[in-house]
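ok so heres the complex, two chains, lmk if somethin looks off
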Amino acid sequence: MTLKVLYFASVSEAIGLTAETIDLPAGVTTVGALRQRLGERHAALLTAKNLRAAVNRQMCGWDAPLADGDEVAFFPPVTGG
Amino acid sequence: MQEVSVQQADFDPGAEIAALSADDAEAGAVASFVGLVRRDKHHGDVVAMTLEHYPGMTEQALAEIVTQARERWQIRRVRVIHRFGRLLPNERIVFVGVTSGHRHDAFAACEFIMDYLKTRAPFWKKEETPAGARWVDARESDDRALDRWK
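and the predicted structre for the whole thing:
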């Protein structure tokens, strides 16, 4: 099961990546669990203040489920307008 | 007419306002908002601002906000334009225009769209100042602004 993971703004800068494709680790079924797992490599995902996430371009909570081929994004609170 | 545009290019507010009500004799009101890059910030003069966004999600989020506005008010035409890239102080960032039969719906929907855009549309601002560049922090007041629409 593969996922496309995107990072934006200060989160992307801190991690040094804008995107990566990963194999979903066994036992990881939610966005929150994915954050914890990726946080082992990208500490900023665990330390970022008020981190937000989206699955398939919809804002979501940490309990949102993951499916094969999903596009998951992590980013700080938005500041447009 | 196209309702949502996410673009680098500037826009002409007058032309957008005129287009909103063109050939629509049922429209009795046009309300609009234009957001600009502001120079003065307590962290020092802002020399420029760069807006990053999430292509694909941005357009979708703005379209969903417009749909919600249509469910709440009797509105006719809506136009939302949001720029990205590097912008200088006094440059235009965002345009929201709404037409309706009577003014209340246009005013309310315009403000609703701006309030939701500020907390739901995936844009991020980075300010350049003489002291260096910094990402703009989200404001709690923007979250609170949503409470009145609940």
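quick notes: The first strand of chain A starts at residue 2 and ends at 7. thats all i got rn
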